[in-house]
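Lab notebook page, bench 4
Experiment: in silico fold of construct C2
Operator: M.H.
Input chain length: 112 residues
Purpose: comparison with the prior construct
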Amino acid sequence: QVRLVESGGGSVQAGGSLRLSCAVSGFTFSNLAMGWYRQAPGKEREWVLLIYRDGTIRYRDSVKGRFTISRDNYKETVNLQMNSLRTEDTAMYYCWASTGTWGQGTQVTVSS
């Protein structure tokens, strides 16, 4: 059974940075596509970045140039580096695996 555990959320002022990590267990990590989604209050969950098995990355337009995603197949983790954060980035961030598994979420709050 795939298990995802996120860490690294918190509160930061606009323009600041945060790094989220997702530890994966219960599956061969290198076989998985991974991603980060987010859900703001009153809004639908949306994908933010996806990284495929071959390292291909898809970025949501609103985070291009500010967010990056990386995966460590040895440590079986996927990371989300968020720079130049904006108030509109405030949301619960979820790690996702291509098995259809979700993490529990970690809150990111950006204040002006």
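Observations: The chain has a mean pLDDT of 95. The chain has no helices and eleven strands.
Next step: discuss at group meeting.
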